[in-house]
Amino acid sequence: MTMLQLMFINQTLSLRVTSWQRVPVRSSRCGSLVHLSFATEGRLTLDDKDISADATFQQYLAGAGFGEILIPGPSQGLGRRLQGTDGMLKGFFNFLTGVEQRCESQKLEPPEDLFRSGFRALALVKQAVPESPESALSQFFIDAWTGQAFPKPGFDKARDQLNKVIRANQSWTEEILSGPGLEVYSTYSAMQPYLKQVRIVNGSAQLVMTVDGSTGFDCIAELTGNDSAAEETDGSSGSETLSFQGLLEEDGLILRHFRLDLRDSNNALMRRRRLQEEDEEDAIMMGAFIQAGIMPTHMDYFDVDSDPSGRRASGAPYRVTHDSDVSGARVFPEKTYVSISSLPQDLTVANAMAALNITQIASACRSLDPNGTVIPAMTSLLAAIHGILTIAEEQPLPPTFEKYSELGGSILFTYCMTGWSVRWWTRSEAASLPINCSSPGPRQPGSQR
Organism's domain of life (predicted)? Predict the structure, then answer.
């Protein structure tokens, strides 16, 4: 099969198919999709008898006078759907009939039903910097050839395709341990590669500490503002608000796209909860923040439907983004999952500290709440952390974790030229390179403190 006829009403287009591919997709109608590729016109994707056109094919249809064949609306995922598809591709469905392929959908559970027992993940977090693009440039490292400043480690400048302006972005790494009732986040910044910030979250309370080596410093107990225990659910799993948007392809993966409307969720929360006066005020304020663009209006969640390489499991989280459709809203971070695996055992504070190799704290954890508010969740965290971590005998100067600031005393990285590539390296990495690398100086005691 090399020629295909696309028919709509009384019009016909003849197209030459250069290749076709069947791709396993669990969320499709028959367990797989069929891609039809054309020389220059673009690509069509078939899901049973539903047909979608990619952006290139959409332009081709518009130029050929077939624009009305596209279902109105924005392009999503695999492209825009074509209407009236039954019998549209003359001869093609007869061709597929002769190919042995059973139409069997392979159900994939919704996101909220996956990884209920807990997981460990590594994620890359990226956020646009609200300041000018120049804020991404280093004040210490200059390209000797051009005289231009290098980007600070973890920063880059890129063009925002939506607004067509140059933005500065910062990226950092986050290790996540998640289990029923407990979340642990360990944040690593290229600006301070020998430090990490650890947050242990238990519902409406959390512990925050800066970790240097295996020692935790400046452990603070505080409220998170998320009183999940106070929510009275209506018995639903939440799937009514997490709506399926479609499928898309990225880096060889087939992804499922879900969206959560945070405005609807906040309104539903107010309806479901028996609010105290102060709780109702908080909910109203949250709604005002959303409308003002201070908080996002929606969350987009992407997970893996199918990975032809077999490296990622179906249902594994891939990316989470928060955004706002309010004009002039602040920019929110996006989180892309690099790897994820199930936890071998229940997540406890002790298991989390062992996984992150934290063996002691410099001093007992304390609360900064001026009212001395201590809730059961906070008491539980404090008891757990003090029961497993010893207090360090020596009391070194506590480090400060500042992933945004380029401080002279915190520089533990350098730039080196390797071939025609310039990148930053930590001091230990640079020492092993077969070239000489200069940097502002070695780490001194308290250089990050």
Answer: Eukaryota
